[in-house]
Specification:
The chain has 2 domains: 81 residues, OB fold (Dihydrolipoamide Acetyltransferase, E2P) (Beta Barrel); 77 residues, OB fold (Dihydrolipoamide Acetyltransferase, E2P). The protein is built from 4 helices and 10 strands, in the order ββαββββαβαββαβ. The chain has a 4-stranded mixed sheet, with no helix packed on it. This is DUF223 domain-containing protein. It comes from Brassica campestris (Field mustard).
Length: 165
Amino acid sequence: MSLDMLFLDEQSTLIHRSINSSRVDTFRRRLSEGSIYSLSGFNVARSNPKFRLSDSPVSIRLNDETFFETKTDSDKDIPTEIFRFHSHEQLLALTNTNRELPDIVGEVSSVRSTITDGLRGPQRVMVTLRLEEDVNVCVSMFDDRAVTFQTKFDEHISKPKGTLH
């Protein structure tokens, strides 16, 4: 698993950024939301068409050589209107409207699995995501998706965060 974020370049283009799970703790301490950085020493790769957080054809991958310099003297403003953040109530209002398919980001608070429990029958994983302090969502996955999720979850070293698409 990895930590996926969105970067905004000088032309206000959203670019997907991925940090390998083994480097998450290293970069988490060096980055803060809403800050402006000069970035060097990163890899550029084609965006995965099955997992795209932005329209950009490329994504950025941070590595051990990546260097951040905080820009405190920048006159640039971050155009927050291009990010569509919603409260839990707003997400509920979008249910079954077919107007927008928002991403849901939350902390994995529990995982129940027929795979690890050794139960026979269909493979099923139920993940509880904490969206806010008192708002939890249960997500169910079946068959191949359940096995894929469980495999990646088991390989993860630290407590994962989740993004649901």
